[in-house]
């Protein structure tokens, strides 16, 4: 029986010594928290941005926009009702099909997006465009004057001979 007690007592001492490591709970969680942040910024957040862009492009669909469906069909939007999950698209001349809005995967060409980009570019470019035009006019005017001077010098030299 002594051998059995000798075997159990060291095990009990080892358990008591291991209890002191319980204060390092946060330290043991630090790698998991770090991995969560890495996953969030590298996977979850970009997917959320992509989903937001997808929702915005679906809301801005207009007649004449070219779309790509999940089935690989390229079509042109003919009728788009915002209150309905269905939309009517034109596959080719006089071939119209109703599809679910959720099957649209990509907007290939959008008149609304082109108009928005044109408006953004016009707003940003207007002040700079005026300055560029003035600079271009000045640059163009200077070489013309030089050429005129050269021609007059050439004609003067030929007249002298």
UniProtKB/TrEMBL annotation:
Matching Pfam families, A to Z? YajC
**Membrane topology per record:** Single-pass membrane protein
InterPro entries reported for this sequence: Preprotein_translocase_YajC (IPR003849)
Quaternary structure, from the entry: Part of the SecDF-YidC-YajC translocase complex. The SecDF-YidC-YajC translocase forms a supercomplex with SecYEG, called the holo-translocon (HTL).
- Residue ranges spanning the membrane: these are 26-44
The family line of this record is:
Belongs to the YajC family.
Query: Where do the segments described as Disordered lie?
Result: 115-161
Annotated Gene Ontology cellular component terms:
plasma membrane
Q: Which species does the entry assign this protein to?
A: Commensalibacter intestini A911
Start-end of Basic and acidic residues biased regions: 129-161
State where the protein is found. Answer: Cell membrane
Coarsely, its chief localization is membrane
Q: What the protein does?
A: The SecYEG-SecDF-YajC-YidC holo-translocon (HTL) protein secretase/insertase is a supercomplex required for protein secretion, insertion of proteins into membranes, and assembly of membrane protein complexes. While the SecYEG complex is essential for assembly of a number of proteins and complexes, the SecDF-YajC-YidC subcomplex facilitates these functions.
Protein's GO biological process: protein transport
Q: Could you identify this protein by its name?
A: Sec translocon accessory complex subunit YajC
The domain of life is Bacteria
Q: State the UniProt keywords alphabetically.
A: Cell membrane, Membrane, Protein transport, Translocation, Transmembrane, Transmembrane helix, Transport
């Amino acid at each position: 029986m002594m051998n059995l007690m000798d075997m159990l007592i060291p095990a009990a001492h080892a358990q008591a010594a291991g209890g002191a490591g319980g204060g390092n709970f946060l330290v043991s969680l630090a790698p998991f928290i770090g991995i969560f942040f890495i996953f969030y910024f590298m996977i979850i957040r970009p997917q959320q941005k992509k989903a937001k862009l997808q929702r915005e492009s679906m809301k801005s669909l207009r007649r004449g926009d070219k779309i790509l469906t999940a089935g690989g069909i390229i079509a042109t939007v003919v009728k788009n009702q915002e209150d309905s999950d269905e939309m009517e698209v034109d596959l080719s001349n006089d071939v119209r099909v109703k599809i679910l809005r959720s099957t649209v995967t990509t907007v290939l060409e959008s008149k609304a997006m082109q108009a928005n980009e044109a408006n953004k570019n016009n707003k940003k470019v207007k002040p700079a465009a005026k300055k560029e035009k003035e600079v271009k006019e000045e640059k163009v005017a200077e070489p013309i004057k030089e050429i005129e001077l050269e021609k007059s010098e050439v004609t003067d030299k030929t007249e002298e001979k």
